[in-house]
């Protein structure tokens, strides 16, 4: 990771919450015996991999707009309301996290 400036506190809080929600969701799904497709797990980690870099080296490419593209791509592929397994929407998790900010 390049050394850079930290993201604004509101960005850190919101995206750290998304990371936590995603980790907890995968853990819950494994705990309760849900099958997680390896392609889904790949796509989830792909969507989240640049979040830490953004939080620690904010600016240039590492800004919310670019990170959100990956979150939206994951949601579009894996979050379907009629699916038998309800997958966490990363964008909804982000929206909730932003709503909870002081």
Task: Produce the secondary structure layout.
Layout: H1 9-31, H2 38-48, H3 51-56, H4 64-78, H5 90-99
Helix pairs in contact: 1-5, 2-4
Explain this structure to me?
The protein has 102 residues and is mainly alpha-helical. 64% of the residues lie in helices and 0% in strands. The chain contains five helices and no strands. α1 (9-31) crosses α5 (90-99) and α2 packs antiparallel against α4. The N and C termini lie far apart (29 Å). The relative contact order is 0.21.
Quick synopsis:
The chain has 102 residues and is mainly alpha-helical. The protein has five helices and no strands.
Helix content: 55-70%
Specify the biggest β-sheet.
Answer: none
Number of helices in the DSSP assignment: 5
C-alpha Rg, in Å?
14 Å
Give the key terms.
mainly alpha
